[in-house]
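quick one, two chains, predict together pls
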Amino acid sequence: MTEPIAQTEPRPAAAKRFLHLGAMQRLLAFGALIVLFVGFSLASPNFLQFDNVVGILLATTVNGVLALGVTFVIITGGIDLSVGTVMTLSAVTTAVFITNWHLPVLLGIMAGLVTGALSGMVNGTLIAKLKIPPFIATLGMLNVARGLALVFSGLRPIYFNDTPVFNQVAMGSLLGSIVPGFEVPNLVLVLFGAAVLASLALSKTVFGRYTFALGSNEEATRLSGVDVDAWKIGVYAVTGLFAGLAGVLIGARLNSAQPSLGLGYELEAIAAAVIGGTSLSGGEGTILGTVIGAFIISTLTNGLRILSVPQEWQTVVTGAIVILAVYLDIIRRRRQS
Amino acid sequence: MNKNKLSVALSLLAAVALVCAPAARAAEPYIPVISKGFQHQFWQAVKMGSEKAAKDYKVKINFEGPENESQVDKQIEMLQAELAKKPAAICFAALDSKAAIPLLQKAHAAKIPVVGFDSGVDSDIPVATAATDNIAAAGAAADHMAKLIGGSGEVAAVVHDQTSRTGIDRRDGFLKRMKEKHPNVKVVDVQYGGGDQLKSTDLAKAIIQAHPNLKGIFGANEGSIIGVLNAVKELHKEGKIVVIGYDAGKQQKDAVRSGVEAGAVSQDPVGIGYKCVEAAAKAIKGEKVPKNIDTGFKWYDKTNVDSPEMKPLLYD
């Protein structure tokens, strides 16, 4: 049982270098975020405005929450391509509960979260029990969830017009009522709250330790008597749960469940995790890194838009940054070994 | 056991295939209607129109389309599969006006009349095309925008994409009209949100931040305009920025009613669906049909959004 953990914490000397190098990418990512902020602020007087920074925070929430979830499976050495459309399916479920069935808002939110977690559990079961590679299993789920979202919604957006409280609570500002003028929407608080929970789960619990153990050496973990399959299903369920939360958030912000959204969101979430230093080969990653990664993407997108850079070039720049981040990861691994 | 399962599965498949092949034995002429999508409310309205025409003209239709408007390849596959069924005619809304030409030539050679809808094909093959003049409609949006902001100032546009025919036509129609007729109005930014409501919201916010003197924003399709409306709402700029949209949808109609959105140009999706199937049905019988069927557009605002003449055009 201590064996797999030893995998992530090698001998003292190596550990020191490992920590140093691992922290380096996070530091680098954080530095990049600062550079982006300073650069855009100098380039345009309209960038460093309170409203715009809130805009960046808001633009990070949905992708950020998806990326938090995805971080868990990537650390196990797996992947989840279905988070984007599971998010949509969860949003639709919430809307069906609240708007079509006139059930209480809280119950609708619960339903969205459960939908996400269940989809994740199905993913985990396919992967752990049926031994379907994660890429294929979750690719299948991507389509299943997308299709179900269309079926449940009846091919049309569902609005939360009868329950304005849903949107009001999400877009209202608890902070603003405490500190006048500091109007940061509650959605942003949800992102930070979710990040704190994810970080605690990953660093302080048995669940977190096994997540790393699965990614470092699954066979050794199994041999030390851990029920690998059960924990794996659990990890995918957690990823699904975050996708469900993202679904509730996007529904609240758009005041509607849009059944045709979601494609491509998974790649942006994976990009955020990778930019933040989560290794696609598993065994390594932090929540703080992922949050920074998500902020880099949204800051970049926002800043380039403020500067009116043509859209096609915005896409090129974001793509190049992901490649750069993965390359840094590879360099780091090479030096480690 | 395994063999049994296999044979059960195979016979199920065969049963499904039989059910799915109504074309082969239907007495009514079969016309596949290949649209650009099916999920958006706009396409559902087109579908409604085509089904109505199918009933009126006693033809059998099959309405289908790819999942989003960038899947040119999927749409070509659909066209190919439908051609193989030897239909009486084909209604086709090309995602890429050039990519489909080889298949359309095949249809032409097999004497299957082709009717274009929603946007044209760069070819003489279609016997008719039922479409909105998007350039003219976006031009009308520009005229209203110029008038509402008092003839001068900065405006911006959020467009769904920069490669599709409708995206290009609406953007260019808007820009061209501003340049020609309203030289004091400056279009300071055009951005593309893929018709994705969330992305369009974030980019519309960035546009408003980048241009503090912005007087108006034009959203070129339903997803784009919903993004613009969210942005205006989140930044508390209701009434300070003139918002002009395109098409309909419940959210947009509500915004027009409440005055947050000044108005929008609407196409006639039901009419597009109806007229293309009608033209196809007539072409089968050898009747003459006009080459270009302009399905028109209308401006709507607070004053006429609920009027009887607008109602059939504005889907929910």
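The CA atoms of residues 46 and 269 of chain B lie 5 Å apart.
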